[in-house]
Amino acid sequence: MRDSDLLADEAKYCSFGDTVHYADPPKIFDRCEGSYLFDAEGTPYLDLQMWYSAVNFGYSNPRLNNVLKHQIDTLPQVASQYLHPTKIELAKVIAQDMEKKFGNAGRVHFNVGGSQSIDDSLKLVRNATQGKSLMFAFEGGYHGRTLGASAITSSYRYRRRYGHFGDRAYFIPFPYHFRGPKGMSKEEYGEQCVAQFERLFESEYNGVWDPKVGQSEYAAFYVEPIQGTGGYVIPPPNFFKGIKRVLDERNILLVVDEIQMGFYRTGKLWSIEHFGVKPDVLVFGKALTNGLNPLAGLWAREELINPTIFPPGSTHSTFASNPLGTAVGLETMKMLAETDYEAMVMGKGAHFLAGLKDLQKRHPEIGDVDGLGLALRAELCEADGFTPNKRLLDKMVDIGLAGGLQHKGKKCGLVLDVGGYHKNVITFAPSLHISTEEIDLGIELLDQLLNLAKRA
To answer: Fewer CB within a 10 Å sphere, N or C end of the chain?
Structure first.
């Protein structure tokens, strides 16, 4: 069927509620491999966002695909009241890794997606704190669009039509240094943000703390160590130690959302490892199965999740811990243990960041570049290098998806993701297996895109 016919049917039969089209008309892809998507004409599109960091290990990864195929032929389905080996084995691998890194015993609870696992974590936190339903979260934070997750996501537009259903967030400024107060170093700004948060506990009149009983009205602080949809904002290294100190002194839980930054996106299995603090709860998803199966989950400390305090049936999904997903997830963890992904990702990330900085020298519209591992950002601005320029990025996305860029005399395209508080940030999440040649190609195509978009 022709793309035009498919788009006509989409316009008539598909809900637009689950769709975000970045181009008009929307792009239709036919196949994928490695770092590339291909359209019906066979034009290659270098993908620098990899399904919002769900495909960390490359499209059609042979090793992971073969595990899925094998599982389909052995035990593709089983009701969730029964057990199968890879569920237990995967939970054990993750829990043992957490105990080794953070020193706390704990358990793993699976679900089908990141938002659903955030909702599970809200149940777990409320249960562990005698039903407290108020949470801290960050401005610019994103935790999903289910009713529970959207309550702790800072964008009001995700809640506007639906109201509130119990869990509410007090949104705290994230240390977004590029758009923070001028004249401060990144570390000084981080310290200021911690002090601003700690001020909420100065007295009962700050509204969140009862000093007579030493109790907070808020149960937990939900954090992305590196903001995802907010624009891959990377905090100063001292920031989370300060936040965790304040939380521990007030007996408030730290819930770490690793859905987008987990599985070596930043050069560590979990991005929170860069900042030297211990989570009480950690939520994961996306790249666990390389996008082959919807599987996510959470890890929590034993005292929060043991069967006495969080008994059977506390939360449930028919397809949670399904054998297709857990088999691929277990193979992912085995693959990560066999290769030094930290060295690989940090090396490639440094190469990519150097290319972005070189591009910034040639284009004053790139106001800021930053990165940790292969989570990188380029913030597009007006010629002053600061005023947000969403229009320019929108043009770049359209041109990249049109497939008319040139490389060695052949047509190609470029797939970018849009993020940031002002939707003017390119958030780069390439395959962790991307080659240095493909990184160099990406920089070359970005240069083309910028020149074309500025003239458009």
So the answer is: N
